[in-house]
Amino acid sequence: EVQLVESGGGLVQAGGSLRLSCAASGFTADDYAIGWFRQAPGKEREGVSCISSSDGSTYYADSVKGRFTISSDNAKKMVYLQMNSLKAEDTAVYYCAALIAPRFYGSRWCRAGVQDYWGQGTQVTVSS
Predict the structure, then answer these.
(1) Spatial separation of the C-alpha atoms in residues 79 and 97, rounded to whole Å
(2) What φ, ψ does residue 22 adopt, rounded to 5°?
(3) 54 pLDDT band (50/70/90 cuts)?
(4) Number of H helices, E strands in the chain
(5) Residue 12 three-state SS
(6) Quick one: 73 exposed, middle or buried, by C-beta within 10 A (0-12, 13-18, 19+)?
(7) 113: left (phi over 0), alpha (psi -120 to 50) or beta
(8) β-sheet bridge partners, residue 25
């Protein structure tokens, strides 16, 4: 059974940094993608950043390009999201999600609606 567990959320001042971690387990194949999604009150859940386990391809939402970096350790099955220059607008619950065989989804592979598994979420609050 696939399980995803997030950690690293918390309270940080604007301009600060935070690193989120996602521990993945239970995958029976090597072809999958792990992504970070966030949802603020009253807003749709959106894809922040995703990474493919097979070729290392990455995706970043325009709102976080240049500030966030996704990375992975395939041996440990860990995915990280380094968040720098945080803004109040980054405040949200951040979720880790997994998609099996992402190559079949083309440009939609980092959309919330196609993900197969979800973690429980971790709160990130940025104070201004």
Answers:
(1) 10
(2) -130, 120
(3) confident
(4) 0, 11
(5) strand
(6) exposed
(7) alpha
(8) 3
Predicted pLDDT at 22: 97
Give the DSSP letter string of 33-76: EEEEEEE-TTS--EEEEEEETTT--EEE-TTTTTTEEEEEETTT
Report pLDDT digits (tens) over 59-113. 999 999 999 999 999 888 899 999 999 999 999 999 999 999 999 999 999 999 9
Nearest CA-CA partner of 20 in 33, 32, 10:
10
Specify the residue for token string 């860990």.
78
Radius of gyration for the alpha carbons in the chain, expressed in angstroms and rounded: 14
DSSP code of 116? S
